[in-house]
């Protein structure tokens, strides 16, 4: 339950004069859901981008099971067992639903793909199982661009499932979902958690956070202000004031 699989230490990144991430230290554990919570612009997505190699850090380190990952390319981080979703989903909009999921099963770069029809069939079986689990089987041949909003969110989750990664970084996967869809999404997370997946969930809806997470890391202006038990953090009036935009005036 407490096996640490991912750790960042003092990750920092600025864009011009904006310090987007300012020394973020975070740990993810197998079979646990850590919610990354904080107001708009707090640095949540940038933190993911630094971990996954989509952006270079100015300073700080990150490691997966003790192996340093700073400087690796996104596909190299993916090969170490990290699957991520994007706030803007980034589906292959003109490919079919099934093709989108199959693409997520590719475990090697283009020049070397473990070959043969057996491997191909295994990848197809993984893709089909992911479609089944996300309720998208009947839409397998539809183009991603023709899906409804919630279906696109689940397609993004099907891609995560099919990747068979044991670390999931999910950027607002439940935003805008209706209650029934949110319940289905919650079940996907609980099943993954039971299999020992370490999950980091960026989520603005605090009801979802309370229901699904074991820990919260509260981020504001690029810094982790608090980390720990969800109930305690959400009851903290100072954090609530920051979260709901009622920030105390800073001394001039
Ligand atoms: N590529 C970029 N170039 C310039 N500034 C950026 C870039 N990416 C992020 N920022 C800035 O860094 C800060 C943190 O952004 P980030 O997207 O990480 O926030 P967030 O916590 O994910 O917010 P939200 O909840 O709105 O998604 C913001 O001020 C944002 O404008
Ligand atoms: Mg974001």
TrEMBL record:
PROSITE patterns cross-referenced by the UniProt entry: ABC_TRANSPORTER_2 (PS50893)
Tree of life domain: Bacteria
Pfam families tied to this protein: ABC_tran
Keyword Manganese included in the entry's annotation: no
Keyword rRNA processing in annotation: no
Domain ABC transporter stretches: 6-246
A Gene Ontology molecular function term of the record: ATP binding
Keyword line: ATP-binding, Nucleotide-binding, Transport
This protein's name: ABC transporter ATP-binding protein
Taxonomy of the source species: Bacteria, Pseudomonadati, Pseudomonadota, Alphaproteobacteria, Acetobacterales
